[in-house]
Amino acid sequence: MKIKTWLAAALCLTVLSACGGGSTNSTASQTTEDSSKVGKTLIVGTNAEFAPFESHQADGKLTGFDIDLINAMAKAGNFKVELRDQPWDGLFASLNNGDLDVVASGVTITEERKQTLGFTDSYFDTAMIVLTPNNKKFTALTDLQNMSRVAVCTGQTGDLAVQKILGAQSTKIARFDTVPLAIKELQNGGVQAMVSDGAVISNYVKANGIANVTINKVPEFGTDHYGFVVRKNDTETVNMLNDALKKIRASGEYDKIYAKYFTN
C-alpha cells in the first residue's frame, strides 16, 4: 500500500492536471513566463487637462505628445504602460504610495521637486509666458505687482513662479484647476494676466481662435525642462525610461511625434 501511495503521489506531481493543488503553480509559472516576454508593465499617471501634452479625444481616449512619447518608448524599450488619468494635485502622492510607477504630465524638472522625486532625462524644453488682454500693457514681470489678480494653474510651475514675484500668500494670485478655466477668466476680465507654460497657452489660443489676447515672452523666466517622474531613488525605472528615450531619439521616432504636435 505504501508503494502504491508513493507512485500515485509521483504521478500527481508529474501530471499537474490530475490532482488538485498543482494547477495553481502552473498558472503562476505561465504568468511569469508571459511577463518576461512582454517586459515590465508600468502604471503611468497623467492629468489630461494639458493639451497638447495630454488631453482627451472626443471618444474619451487619451492623446497628446506625452502619451504618444511614452507609448513609443514602451515599444522601443520592450515594456508596457497602463495609463491612468487623474487630478493633477494627487499625481505625486499616488506615485509615492505605489499606486503609480511613473508620472507623465508635462512636469517641469526643478531643484525643489528633485528633493522628493526622481526624474528622467529631459524630453522637452519650454518657457513660461505671460498672457494678457490686448488692452493691458505688459513690459516686465514687475508689472504683475501692479495688477489686482494674476491667474495660474494650481501647483504648476507658473504658480510657483508667481509666488516668488507676489509672495506665496498673496491674495492677488487666482488659482484655477485648468488652463482653459484660467484663460476664460482672463477673457471675462476677472484677472489681468495669466502665467503658464508657453507651449500649452499657444496651443489653446490657436486651437480656439482667441484673438483678444497677447502672448508675452519673458526672457527672465529662462527655459524649463520636462521630465518623466518616478519615485525617489527608483534607478531601475529611470534607467529603463532613459534608455528607451535615447532609442526613439536615435531612430527618429521622437522627431516624428514632435512634428505631429508642434511647429517652429
List the helices and strands and how they pair.
Layout: H1 2-14, H2 22-38, E1 41-46, E2 55-56, E3 62-63, H3 65-77, E4 80-85, H4 91-96, E5 102-103, H5 111-114, E6 117-119, E7 124-126, E8 128-133, E9 150-153, H6 157-166, E10 173-176, H7 179-187, E11 193-197, H8 198-207, E12 213-217, E13 224-226, E14 229-231, H9 235-251, H10 253-261
Parallel strand pairs: 1-4, 1-5, 9-10, 9-11
Antiparallel strand pairs: 2-3, 6-14, 7-13, 8-11, 8-12
Helix pairs in contact: 3-9, 3-10
Give a structural overview:
It is a single chain. The protein has 264 residues and is an alpha/beta fold. It folds into two domains: 39-125 and 225-261, Periplasmic binding protein-like II (D-Maltodextrin-Binding Protein, domain 2, 3-Layer(aba) Sandwich); 128-222, Periplasmic binding protein-like II (D-Maltodextrin-Binding Protein, domain 2). Helix content is 41%, strand content 20%. The chain is built from ten helices and 14 strands. The protein has helices spanning 2-14, 22-38, 65-77, 91-96, 111-114, 157-166, 179-187, 198-207, 235-251, 253-261; strands spanning 41-46, 55-56, 62-63, 80-85, 102-103, 117-119, 124-126, 128-133, 150-153, 173-176, 193-197, 213-217, 224-226, 229-231. Helix 3 packs across helix 9 and helix 3 (65-77) runs antiparallel to helix 10 (253-261).
Largest sheet: 5 strands, mixed
The helicity comes to: 40-55%
| Share of residues in strands | 15-25%
CATH superfamily of the largest domain: Periplasmic binding protein-like II
- Mean pLDDT comes to 87
Overall spatial form: globular
Distance between the termini: 84 Å
Low-confidence stretches: 1-37
How many separate structural domains?
A: 2
CATH architecture heading of the largest domain: 3-Layer(aba) Sandwich
Could you tell me the number of beta strands?
Answer: 14
Fold-level CATH name of the largest domain: D-Maltodextrin-Binding Protein, domain 2
